[in-house]
Design a protein that fits this description.
By secondary structure, the protein is mainly α. The protein is built from 15 helices and no strands. The longest helix is centred in the last third of the chain and has 39 residues. It is globular, with a radius of gyration of 22 Å. It starts with 34 loop residues before the first helix and ends with a helix.
């Protein structure tokens, strides 16, 4: 069955063509490079992995409760709309929310794959080209695994969210080489990393936890790459040039805020969209979720030096300014440690299972 047959609403066959501006830049300097970026490139090579082999795809997933969480984690839980639903209808809500969420993860990763290739092409220095090449491989793996998970475990796809599509088009359509970095590495990847982290930490499903943890291990390097490259470059820009980047960040952050409203789900299910959006906007759960979503973006924006009054005012308005003091390096180290721990635990479980099977076979043979 084609993926097109699994979308909740029709998606035009063929490609979505985004005009890309700017030059393809070559560098004939092969000896010099920033050691921090070269070290990151080495880590990118060392940490490559195979999604088919590292992830245990046989682990079960209930499509009507993919995350294995309680009803209270549904965005409209407790609303008038939720209370009038029967259990079958609530199951359908959960199915569509899971489909929408993992579809957006998938589309975002394809965007990251395309932008990483764009960075290889347009960035002026070779050390950045080296690392961006490893990121392109990472993103291809992420597209592979999110596509497989959504198709095999959920069986339903949603089209790309319009807010995500706009930010991708804006980042790719700008001729300045740093704008794909800023749009993808800082905003889209930063938000995705936080969203992965929230769902990794709340899910009760082993496959979902494993999948998100391993993706986050890669994404931690990607955000570090954007920080290193942009911090060096932005320290040289004029105040007018920085102000232009600040405008882009502010617009991008509002788009990213709106990206997780799930308006498409409420429309597809025939609910009162305005009521659902209004409820989720003011629910304590959604407000806490938003704080966590921006926990990776705000300190990164501050770190790279795009931190004028307009940006700070936007973060006050969004209610996420407190995230500016987050320890981004500690968060990234934790992401990598959690992935390593889960891999060790899963390997131990597999070894124990094998011992049980071997013992059962041995006992049967002796009898």
């Amino acid at each position: 069955m084609s993926t097109y047959d699994m979308y909740t609403s029709p998606v035009a066959a063929g490609t979505w063509d985004v005009p890309a501006a700017g030059a393809a830049r070559f560098s004939w300097e092969y000896d010099d490079g920033r050691q921090r970026l070269l070290d990151l490139y080495q880590r990118g090579k060392d940490k490559q992995w195979d999604a088919t082999k590292r992830i245990d795809w046989d682990q079960p997933v209930n499509p009507f409760n993919v995350m294995e969480t309680g009803d209270e984690f549904c965005p409209i839980y407790g609303s008038r709309q939720w209370e009038k639903l029967n259990q079958a209808e609530r199951d359908e809500v959960n199915l569509h929310l899971a489909s929408w969420l993992f579809s957006q993860f998938l589309h975002g990763e394809q965007g990251a794959l395309t932008v990483a290739a764009r960075i290889v092409e347009s960035v002026p220095d070779l050390d950045s080209k080296f690392y961006a090449a490893t990121q392109a491989m990472d993103e291809a793996r992420h597209v592979e695994l999110f596509s497989r998970f959504t198709k095999d475990k959920i069986g339903l796809f949603y089209p790309v969210n319009p807010d995500l599509a706009k930010l991708l088009a804006d980042a790719l359509g700008d001729s300045r080489w740093d704008m794909p970095y800023l749009g993808m590495q800082v905003l889209i990847e930063g938000l995705a990393l936080a969203a992965f982290g929230v769902h990794r930490d709340i899910t009760g499903n082993a496959l979902v936890k494993q999948l998100l943890a391993y993706v986050m291990q890669d994404e931690a390097r990607h955000v570090a790459f954007g920080r290193l490259a942009l911090r060096d470059y932005y320290s040289q820009l004029s105040s007018a040039e920085l102000a232009d980047r600040e405008e882009f960040v502010v617009e991008g952050c509002y788009l990213m805020r709106d990206r997780f409203i799930a308006r498409e789900v409420w429309e597809r299910l025939g609910f009162d969209v305005a009521e659902c959006v209004e409820f989720t906007e003011h629910s304590p759960l959604q407000q806490a979720f938003r704080q966590l979503l921006f926990s990776r973006i705000v300190p990164c924006v501050k770190d790279i030096g795009v931190w004028g009054p307009k940006v700070r005012d936007a973060y006050v308005d969004l209610g996420v300014i407190a995230a500016a003091d987050s320890d981004l390096d500690a968060l990234m180290r934790s992401d990598e440690d959690i992935a390593d721990r889960l891999e060790r635990e899963h390997a131990a479980e597999l070894a124990a299972r094998k011992q049980e099977v071997d013992a059962a076979i041995s006992s049967a043979a002796e009898a």
